[in-house]
Amino acid sequence: MSPVGRLVVIEGLDGAGKRTLADGLTAELERGGARVGSLAFPRYGRSIHADLVREALHRGHGDLADSVYGMALLYALDRRGAADEIRALLADNDVVLLDRYVASNAAYAAARLSENADGDVVRWVWGLEVDRFALPRPDAHLLLRVSPEVAAERAVRRAAADSARARDAFESDDALQQRCAAVYDELAAAGWLAPWHVLDGVAGVDLPTLAKSLLS
User: Fold this and answer.
1) Rounded to an integer, what distance in angstroms lies between the CA atom of residue 87 and that of residue 172?
2) What is the pLDDT of residues 131-175, one digit of tens each?
3) How sure is the predictor about 126, in pLDDT bands with cuts at 50, 70 and 90?
4) Beta carbons of 102 and 129 less than 8 angstroms apart
5) 115 pLDDT exceeds 50?
6) CATH architecture of 6-215
7) Are 95 and 8 in contact (CB under 8 A)?
């Protein structure tokens, strides 16, 4: 199979199960003969901008985490630093799966400012990451949809099982997660940046069917 270089982004709330979906979808695609690359954002431990994000979310760097635009800029710079890596993955693989991408910035920034998907900060994110940074544009988004309550419960269990994944300031803000879920739904309905496929993160995902659709 010759590489088609499809860039597929998995989005959803913290605790939605994005990593589990990425692992399962990778295995299913590889069983079908596809070459699969992957990358997760933020790139903690690999990017200075991502590490600054993590430190700020755990109350480092003074009031940095309070700045919506400041945090969004750090997230964007992390992705800008990975642009060449994404392009290389696209050149070598049939499908490249990203755990979070530009839409995460749009959803969380809008939610923090209590704006909708057509608000100023979402337009700013597009102008910064798509227009100015010229990041590779995705071919599809997969929105793993669960209720904020389910996502929060999963995030708590994950943190209890893995001390390295303690909940940060965003993950522990239930009201923020509620608003973020609403913005994600709006982005999906609008087909923001690329087509969106909404998946049921509670009932489960039909991985064979999903894998085939991504290769067709």
Assistant:
1) 34
2) 999 999 999 999 999 988 888 887 778 777 776 667 677 777 889
3) very high
4) yes
5) yes
6) 3-Layer(aba) Sandwich (3.40)
7) yes
**74, 126 Cβ separation under 8 angstroms:** no
Four-residue CA torsion sign, 41, 21, 19, 39: negative
Short-list 108, 99, 104, CA closest to 19: 99
User: Residues near 33 by Cβ (< 8 Å), separated by ≥ 6?
Assistant: 1
Strand-strand pairing, 196-200 and 140-145: parallel
What is residue 164's predicted lDDT score, i.e. its pLDDT? Answer: 65
Q: CB neighbours of 154 closer than 8 A, spacing ≥ 6?
A: 15, 16, 17, 146
96 CB-near residues (< 8 Å, 6+ apart): 5, 6, 7, 8, 36, 37, 38, 39, 86, 89, 90
Which of the 8 DSSP states describes residue 64? G
- Residue 216 corresponds to which tokens in the numbers above? 């067709």
CA distances from 82 to 25, 26, 58, 77 (A): 22, 20, 24, 9
Taken in order 64, 67, 73, 74, the sign of the CA dihedral is positive
What residues form DSSP beta bridges with 6?
95
Position 2 confidence tier, pLDDT thresholds 50, 70, 90: very low
Residue 176: both structure tokens together? 């923020």
Residue 138 belongs to what H/E stretch? Answer: none
Token digits of residue 117: 């998907």
Residue 146: DSSP 8-state: -
